[in-house]
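seq as requested:
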Amino acid sequence: MTNNIAQLISAVEQADSSASLLEAVQNLASSRLEEAVPTLIAALGYNNPGAAVAAVDGLIAIGSKAVEPLLSLLDNYNYGARAWAVRALAGIGDPRGFDILLDAAENDFALSVRRAAARGLGTIHWQLLPSEQVLTKQQQAIETLIQVAKDPEWVVRYAAVTGLEALAGAISETQPEILPQITAPLLEIANNDEEVAIRARAWMAINQQQNENNAIEMPNIKTLAESDDEKQVPSRGSSRRT
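struct tokens:
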């Protein structure tokens, strides 16, 4: 371990205020060094959301080398740290975190974790999986994201749409035969979701998958907004889990 990384780690361990801890974690995260992983993971459990966000960003930047330590964290730390770890795994996109994201997207208590997991399911690095596992995992992701698209929280449903769009892009060349499994539910969302932003986003995702000669014209935002006279837009507060 170089003197520089040792100093950065020591600064985190010796921080004596919220502000100094945040700065120290940010500096350590910016190093992007594997040696920083244990200390960044420890920061996920501190009662300092700013430091936790910085640690998550650092772990995502480090990437695959942080995955195994993060998976170990899930069994040993409190819920708060586990929630931050799920967000880091979602951002990294390593398939080793797939099952964790699958469960978190549908079942986690916190809407922010469900949202992050839904996005993460769309951006898994499928090429890192054995080829014989890819289709099965992708179909699992599709099924879960379709379910998450019914979440009571609009921000989670929005994330599910973006996850489905990203997944459609990943499979469009390798598994085009399963694209209807994505476009059909997206069309239902585009026509029926109570939130105008989600309907518009679903139309964008659908159009992304259409060729120029067979494109579905996306309604403009004004048209969608006017249709809200016939729909009751849900509250953006918590309607289920908090």
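The chain has a mean pLDDT of 86.
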